[in-house]
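Aim 2 progress. For RNA-dependent RNA polymerase, the working sequence is reproduced below.
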Amino acid sequence: MPIENNTRVINHESTTRYFEHSIDTGLAQLDNQLIRWEVACSIKNCPVEYQHKVINSALPSDPRHLNLSSILPAYYEAEYVYDTQLSSVIDQLETDMKSDPNTSPKDTPIQKLIRSGLVRFAIDLSISDTFLKSKMTNARLATPNELLRTYGSDCWIQVRMCESLLFQIQFIGRRHGVGNEIWQFLHRPIRLYHRVYRSALVKDEFVWFFTSPMGLPRQMHVIDMIEKQMPLDLNRTMKISKFNSRLQLGLSTTTSSIAFTPQQIRRVPDICTNSLRISKELMSQIATKLGLCYVPSAISGRHRVSKAKYLGQQYTWALLEPVGLPNEILLEVWKNEHMDDRPSSTKFLKFQFSVPIYVQSFRRWKEVKCKIVIPRMRIEIKRGKPAQEVLMTDGAAAIGWGAALGIKAALRLDHLPAAYQARILKSKGLWYLSRDLDKDGFWIEIRASQWKGDVIASRNVPDSVFIDAQREAFKTVLDPLTTPDPIRLAQAMEGHGHLVCLKAKRLMTATTSCVRKELDDFGAAWEKYSNRPYNEMEEIVELLKCGFSTRNNRVLERLNIAGELICNKMMNFKIQVGCSATVYVIPDPTGTLKEGEVFLRLSQFKDPKTLLPINILKGDCVVARSPCVLPTDVRKVTAVSNSRLMCYEDVLVCSIQGQKSLLDYLSGGDVVIVIWDDAFTENFINADDSKEVPPMEEYNHYFSDTVALAASGRGASLPTMRVEDFRNLKAMNGTYEREFRRAQLVSIFQPVAFGRYSRMYRVCEYLFGISHPLTMKFGYVYTKCLDATKQGIVLNTEADQAMKQEFDEALGDLARNEIPLPPWTEYIDISKEEGSREWNFDRREPAKFWLPRKPDHILEAIASTSHEERRKFLETLQLLHSESNDPHLSRPWFVFKEQVASSVRHAHTLMRFIESNAIECYKQYKQPSYNDREGDNHISCEAAGRTFWIDGQFDNAIEAVKHDHYSLHFLRGKGKIEYNVLRLCHIRATASELNYQAQSGIHKIGHCPRAFAPEFCQAMMTKISWLPEPAA
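Predicted structure tokens for this construct:
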């Protein structure tokens, strides 16, 4: 089979190679990329002779049929294990292809899967002692993205850095130690089965290596891929940092749905506070002049005076139907010095309108202009133009019903959503259903703000509202846990523990790394089809299904642990508000909502108090963004009914009227939280814009482009930090590709700052209040740092040092080397919000220092309430325990013991044999129970099991009592089953006499020793609180 080579002339000494040439050639000759990768993963760490033996064997094309243990029985202890989710998709594709008559007989499900970009090939980088370690991981089902679909899975290798490594290189930098080693590794090509992969894109902790697709007449290099994604000529003025972030959009998780032709895409401008209205009559004339086959919803234009050579400021005119202009008026215009209010002075005014149109011959978007003369009598001249131009439609546009129905069919939805979060070309944002109900309308608008590249304060709400809400949340969650109804308790456990999903995941991925990290080394989870409980909640459900009462001490014992976990989870300050919803937010496409008004129509919502359905929300409501750090991040608005917006369901429609829209206050995301509970809305007061808005322009100067750091020391290679610099270097392929790679990779070596500023913001808010200038300053910088990587910016060292000094001066005597924390943060895991890389470099829990407690702070009040409710619940559970509720389990032994004691002609020898065997078991089992985390515990558990079930078995008991006629007669009369039941009852009865109290954690419940009956461990893993009392 001929081998296609897509390598360039490279220095092999500077190439990462995992195999020698002959092995690489053998891998390249295998049938498909999947089997190549899986074989390479399996033999990478084998000696060369083993690698040759595998390559020279008859290997299958489907890795699921790969049996390496038969090829190398001395080396492999287990067979190759494939990803079950990937296997299921392959089986499904095979079924679909068999039913498709157009399928090529040469095509296979695996080849189709790789072409579709649904397979992930990855290399994990980590630190082993002081050495860099790279590990090829088994192929997995990929999260779909645009670049994988475009080029196929075989063109990409995902290099992932673990969190500790990522922080370490950010701490050390790229010039020393492991940082320099990583820097060199990422710049070297990876040579694998005669293909050369080069680092191309960076996103989060992943570096994506790219190689040319097979079968092309000319090789595609990284620079060609970049040109195809974002042409340099069309984006020459864009900053390099923004250019990089736009390229990364191709790596974002997306699901392919429908395709648009360029003619079906409508480029329209954004509506701003200074936008004006235009009539449909005039817009139709403009569309005809521009050669459009549709009437645009908005258009850009200027007032033009030819004699004076005057071209006015560009504005946007919007077609706001059905509330348009009076019949005699064609458009509105702002007053300027070239306009006279008197209609008699000027009979006509000239305007120039423009719109981007796709030109097929050039395969480019081109701005087309037209001039129209409008009678002065049909123009309304307006005064009072807003001082600032604020976007009202940032990131939101309309989509035709025909296209929306196509998305519904492609994604197999059972309903038609009113809004879609999507990406098309290099555009992203939110698209809402057009008010044009034409179901054949297959089109989509793209606004200028979507076009990314060519190609906690209470605000006067009483503290009692939050406290009562937290107390009610605890009551709602915890009441079902103390119910005597076993069905209700089981349902509560299944809901809190997500047991159905957990069990399905465990059965599907029992051998994957995900489960291996979560379970103990010797647990039942290694048995793929084991149905033994995974955690306390699952154990409670199994006990209830077996018929145990909710007041059984075993159930209560596990409920204590599960209840404590649930309580701890609830103490995270995420108060569940019944009258609330999380929805997408869009601008009003009709322009009919007044300033401060919103529209929200809910599809499936019932009032938590009356249980009556709520369809259209009316009255006051509070709308908030996340994260919410500034006083203006929460706004009180009025929800109204609007017949013209009834087609929008589960979407918050905001007014575009006024000096500043709600969308501008909540900028930063497509999703908002809406609360209409009277307790929150009645007393809520909006923040004062004039006093509680930080000087954002000043703070923006604290940040600089990340790419500037990549170019440092490079002279004038990237002088302007714009794409124009790349364009100038394009003639020199090596230099261009080198500088582009540096501009990408430098971002992962920049230390994250949002965790530190999150802490400093919390401290300032706690000490000074949310409206304090210092709090707002640190809050704004914190949110800016959150998106710094996406925007390609980094906090300046000078600004960072100045803010640290300002923070220390504000804290005075409270300042120390470590940033102190408000006491309420004790109840939450702030490492997830702050970025654990920044705080856990040496893998030890960082020391925590607390600020003096402020009992009047709202979060302290909530924390105190949560703590009190948690205490009450756990005390209630303790009161439900009884001294003994399983007397029938110990009764057979007590009866036997009484009979032996009452007669000298009884089985005294047998009783002593049973007792001595049990005592020996306890001696072997007792010690490891106190060392629950030691890895060799299972050895002692197995020894105890052998002692009980081998040494103490029926035949050995016969041998031990053969000289005692009474014991021998009794034993043979009972038989094996009754003899073993008696011994187990003896364990139950004597556990409390021996004062033995084992740890009842998940690591020891019911699955050690596996080779023997699990009832033994269940009997021994007990707590004195639920064992029967010993006989008097």
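The chain has a mean pLDDT of 76. This observation will guide construct design in the next reporting period.
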